[in-house]
Specification:
- The chain is mainly alpha-helical.
- It has a single domain, classed as Winged helix-like DNA-binding domain superfamily/Winged helix DNA-binding domain (Arc Repressor Mutant, subunit A).
- It is built from four helices and four strands, in the order αβααβαββ.
- A hairpin with a 2-residue loop joins strand 3 and strand 4.
- The longest helix is centred in the first third of the chain and has 11 residues.
- The protein is globular, with a radius of gyration of 12 Å.
Length: 95
Amino acid sequence: MLTKFEKQVLEAVRRVPRGKLVTYKQIAKIIKKPQAQRAVGNALEKNPSPIKIPCHRVIRADGRIGGYKWGKMKKIELLRKEGIRIRNGKVVEWR
């Protein structure tokens, strides 16, 4: 069962459109918990529906892709399918 915080994180991520990215920190600010970017990552690990809730669209503030439930290579593959350019594990020109 998900906590209220985890539900808030997943709902915010659900709204990220295809081909767009947000950072863990941006999600933390959206849910009004600006210091909780690490907790955002932990909540995303519990994503019960990765098709409806595209947690692969959440990256680190420095442009690195960060973790993913099914591994970084899968995250890179999904992002590239959405037109996101990645080089050496870092998103190119994402802002």
